Amino acid sequence: RTACENSGYRFPALDLMINLAPADRKKEGSAFDAAILCALLASAGVIHADFSDKCIVGELSLSGGVRSVRGILCMCVAARDAGFTEFYVPVQNAREAAAVHGITVYGVHNMREFIDHLTERNFSNRTVALIENGSWAPLAAKVMKEMLSKCKNITYTDNSVKILSSLNDESTEK
Question: What is the CA radius of gyration of the chain?
């Protein structure tokens, strides 16, 4: 609760039960702290991010900082082998985790930084307006739509906004 509030988020007023399944797997230590907080905030609707391809590891301090954990190399290999494409680790562990090929590693100082990173890159469930400004705009709009094609639930507004230059041939000669 304190780490959450010190990261700038209000701790949800929920009755909680956190299940670390499967039961036959060994789970000890504080490496799950950051992932549990993210799941809690997402389930309460405080943050909106797609965690389906992300693995989050780190111990939380009371200030909201993310502390290093042991065994990061093995965790990173397991995450990659499980199909994750992004691996978020304490900044102290980032260099070690980066030795694993086939997964993108992000070093995180604190939970606020991590959540800001996730939400600034999250374009799911959004309405997007593409503004045409010049003759190159249709090509730029096509490229933007291709870039956003992997995002979930994207709605595009009509191309009703066009910005035309107020300069004519006479004024450009002056």
Answer: 22
Q: Which pLDDT band holds residue 170 (cuts at 50, 70, 90)?
A: low
Closest CA to 123 of 154, 87, 83: 154
To the nearest 10°, the Cα dihedral for 115, 118, 123, 124? -80
User: Helix, strand, coil: what percent of the chain each, to 5?
Assistant: 35, 15, 50
pTM tops 0.85 = no
d(CA 3, CA 9): 9
Burial class (CB in 10 A: 0-12, 13-18, 19+), 127: exposed
DSSP state, 65?
Answer: B
* Dist. CA 103–CA 109, nearest whole Å: 19
Amino acid in the structure at residue 103: I
Give the CA angle between residues 138, 168, 137 to the nearest 5°: 10
